[in-house]
Amino acid sequence: MNEDLRIHSWPCSYYLDTSKQWVSGRLSLTPVAIKFTADKTGELLVNFHLSSISEIKKESSNLIFSSLTILEKNTKHWFSSLQPSRNVVFNILEHFWREQLLSSQGAGAEAAAFQSTKGKELTGLLTGSQKRLEDTAKVLHYQGEQFDNIMRGLNKIEGDMDVADRLLTELESPSWWPFSSKLWKAPLETKPKETATVSDSKNQEGIIIRIPVIITHRTDSNVKPGKLTVLTSGLEISDCNSQVIHRFESKDVDDIRVHTPYEISVRQRFIGKPDTSFRLLSAKMPEAIPVLEMQFSKKIQFLEDALGFVGARKSPQVDMGTSIWQAATGLLGGVVQPGSPVGGREGTDNDQVQLQKQEKISQEEAKELKQILKKLKGLALETEAELERQDEALDSITTSVDRATLNIDKQNRRIKKLT
C-alpha cells in the first residue's frame, strides 16, 4: 500500500511555537503519518509517524477553545478551528493511531523494516494468502449451501408438478375409469421437513471478517466508532457495544462504492423515501475489500482514488502468487540442501553463496513456512473440489429448471383443453 496516500484532510489552524502564532492550513492523514501544510507558503510544518504518537486529546484553555492536541515523543502539537468538527477529526485520528499500534507493523514498523528477514517477509505473505484462501472457502461454502437449498426447492417443485400431473390426469379421465382413486395420493408429509430445513438454513450465520470502522450515516457530519461484519448472508454494522445499527441482507445491497482503499459507502435504494446509506472508514478496510469484491462483484464500484489500489492488487496477482511460491520453495530448498542452487537453477558457486547470504532463513522460519504451505495446499484442494461440486450442482439446477419449464408448458396446454 502506498504510504503517501492521503486518507483524509481537514482545514484547521496549527500553533507554530517558534513564531508564537496560529497558522492556517490543512491537517492530513496518511496510512502511517500525520502532516500539516500551511496555506500561504505551502510549507510542510508537521510530519511525524503514527507510531511516534503517545497521546491524542481534546483540550481547551482560557485562550484556546475546542482544540486537539497530539503528543509526539516530547513535543505537543496544538490544532484548532477543525472542520467539520473536532470530534470527527479526533475519532478518525484515534482510530488509525490505535490500529497502527495494534497491527504487526505498529510501533516498531520503522525498525522492523530494517531488521525483518526474508523468512519473516515470506511468512507474512503466505499467511496473508492463507487468510484470503480461507475467506474464499467460507464464501464458496455458503454458495454451496445456497445451491443445495435451490436443489431442494426444485425437488419440491418437481413433486408438486407430479401431484398436478396426477390431478390433471384424474380430470382428463372419464368418470367410469375404475382406477381414478389411486391417482389422488400425494406426498404431503414432506412439507414439515422442508419448513424445518429452510428455518435451519436461515439460522446459520457465517462470519467471514469483522473490522473496526468509523461510521457516518447518510450525509451526517457526526461520526462514531463501530464495527463492520461481513457475513455469508450480508453485511452488519454495529456500534462499539456490539449493538446492531443496521443489517444489509445480500439482496438489499444495491451498490458498494470504494472511495479509497480505506473508505467505502454501502447503499440500499428506495422509491419514495430516502436511501439507506452508510460511509465506513477503517485502517483495516484493505483486508475487507477483497472479500466484499468477491461477494458483491456485480455491485461494487471502484472510484477514481481507488483505481490505483485495485489495479495494483489485480494486475500482478498471478505473477505475485507465482513469485511467492517460487521464492518460498527456492528458499526452503536452500535451507534443506545448502549445496544446491536456490530455486533449482544452475549458477556459479559465488552466486550461490551470495544468494544464500542475502536470502538465508532460519530453520524455525523454514519449518513455519512448510506448515503454511501444507495448509495452503489443503485449502486449495478443498476449494477446487467445492468448485467442481458447485459446477455439477449448477448443471443439475439448469437441467431441472429446463425440465420444470417444459412440464409447466405441457400442463398449461392440458389445462386449456380442459377449460
Overall description:
It is found in: Cytoplasm, Perinuclear region; Endomembrane system. Residues 355-393 form a coiled coil. It comes from Steatornis caripensis (Oilbird). InterPro entries: PH-like_dom_sf, T_SNARE_dom. The protein has 419 residues and is an alpha+beta fold. Among the domains are: 8-105, PH-domain like, CATH 2.30.29; 207-306, Pleckstrin-homology domain (PH domain)/Phosphotyrosine-binding domain (PTB) (PH-domain like, Roll). It is 48% helix and 24% strand. It has helices at residues 86-102, 109-115, 118-172, 190-203, 285-295, 304-314, 317-336, 349-358, 363-418; strands at residues 8-16, 21-29, 33-38, 44-49, 53-59, 67-72, 75-80, 207-217, 224-231, 234-239, 244-249, 255-260, 263-268, 276-281, 300-302. The strands form two sheets. It has an eight-stranded mixed β-sheet. It has a seven-stranded antiparallel β-sheet with strand order 4-3-2-1-7-6-5, covered by helices on one side.
Task: Kindly provide the name of the CATH class of the domain at 207-306.
Answer: Mainly Beta
Strand arrangement across the biggest beta sheet: 11-10-9-8-14-13-12-15
* Biggest β-sheet strands, sense, barrel: 8 strands, mixed
Find the structural class using helix and strand composition.
Answer: alpha+beta
- From the spread of the alpha carbons, the general shape counts as elongated
Radius of gyration, rounded?
A: 30 Å
Describe the oligomeric state of these chains in a short phrase: single chain
The CATH superfamily of the domain at 207-306 is Pleckstrin-homology domain (PH domain)/Phosphotyrosine-binding domain (PTB)
User: What is the tally of helical segments?
Assistant: 9
User: Which architecture of the domain at 207-306 would the CATH scheme give at its second level?
Assistant: Roll
